[in-house]
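Page 42, continued from yesterday. The earlier attempt failed because a stray header line got pasted into the input along with the sequence. Redoing it now with the clean sequence only.
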Amino acid sequence: PGKAATSQSRMWVYSSNRYCAKPVRYFEYQPDRSGKHPSQLLKDFKGCLVTDGYSGYDKVEGVVRCGCWAHMRRKWREAMPKGATTATSKAAIGYEYCTKLFAQEKKFAELTPKRREEARHGKVELLLDAYWSWVEKLDPAPGSKLEDAVVYARNQKTYLNAFLDHGEVDISNNAAENAIRPFVVGRKNWLFSDTPKGADSSAIVYTMVESAKANGLEPYLYLRCLLEELRFLGNTPSAADLEDFMPWSPMIRRLIDKYN
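This time it went through. Structure tokens are written below.
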């Protein structure tokens, strides 16, 4: 109330990771970036929360904070001069460490969480030891982008290392980043949500579409199926009834075949 449509608000997105049996992409409109919003939404969640370095996530209680190595790598890339190599740029060395980490993780993609944790301690931990030893020796110029990257690394060290003890956890929040990308592209076209209700509606639609995509469903067919079939449940469907219409449900796949 009282805010112009051009005022800045926030669309939060939450994502399960690639190892989850029921992939979810959940969008939530909020008027600001306060950490109280994830704290409220995730108040009953127990597990690992993979995020960027935003300190607002510290308000989420009962979770293990895990850092995002894609954000760490981006910091090094932003500090690299044009044409930089590991011979000419410390930032390029940091970027290469991160790239090696992602290459190692790719080899573990098909392992069980337990085996992945064992592999991380056996191979990745040595790489990280070398990385952090190198980071601690850096003495960047004040105010430089290299200093930004070094400060970020040192401040996030505990979170960035947390994945080692949790084989079910990804080393980045790329799933969430990929889910938010269509929203960011769309925003450049429609520019504004004029009302909170409109923003809430947008969040609902993006939740359904991106969750459908995460479960391998064609979004148009999924939405059409929902609009055609949900009306038969009446105004107060039970949670059990609605479970059949979730994008991971075997029943929804059979229903979608009717509209294909």
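Notes: The beta strands are 10-15, 25-30, 47-51, 63-67.
Reminder to self: strip header lines before submitting.
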